[in-house]
Amino acid sequence: MKRLVLISAIFIFGLCARSVFAEEQLQLRSISDDMEDVQVDMRGYNAIEIPAGTFIPVMNAQEISTQYCSEGYKVKFIVTDDMYMHDTNIIPKETEIYGYVEEIHDPVVGTNASFKVRIAKLVYADGVEVPVKGYLYSSNGNMFGGELSEPVKYQKMPHRQTKSGLYPTLQKRPSFERKMGVHVRIPSGYNGVVVLTAPAEITHTLTN
Q1: b/e 135-165 (16+ beta carbons within 10 angstroms → b)
Q2: Domain spanning 48-148+184-200: which CATH class is it, in words?
Q3: pTM (2 d.p.)
Q4: CB 80 within 8 A of CB 58
């Protein structure tokens, strides 16, 4: 008798569970059907690509010197002019540009100190950051400094300035020996340019 009651209870419980499961499946199908008509309101941006080789005018925000800076030293620049592409101001004036000293060389006999600054990101006035790749530009392969140091002395050499050679003059020529090189610095307020070494996609712009 007890076994019959137990079997009946299990059968009734199974029917109830199946009914609840079927009802849940119907509810899920209904929700799924409703979701098909929902359109997600996403803010669309058309990315503007700034090509590699683009120059951005900047002002140095603090002094950079080989005398006290080391590799990894963080630097900051301020964009000095609005930059437009396709009638859009993609890099407004006063946008901040951040980077770091990537490479630095101390002065040695014959050669002045030198350093190179790598650019890492733009920061807009509203705090949005955009990663970029570039360098603070110089005509010496983006390396500042590295020139020959001053000669130890100048040697006087006669030089004839006329065809007849009757009036020789003395000119000073640098000796082969060079002095100890000097440290190199970029002062605060220095106006230069950042050159991009890879394309940068701008998907964020500021509006008035």
Answers
A1: bbbbeeebbbbbeebebeeeeeeeeeeeeee
A2: mainly beta
A3: 0.68
A4: yes
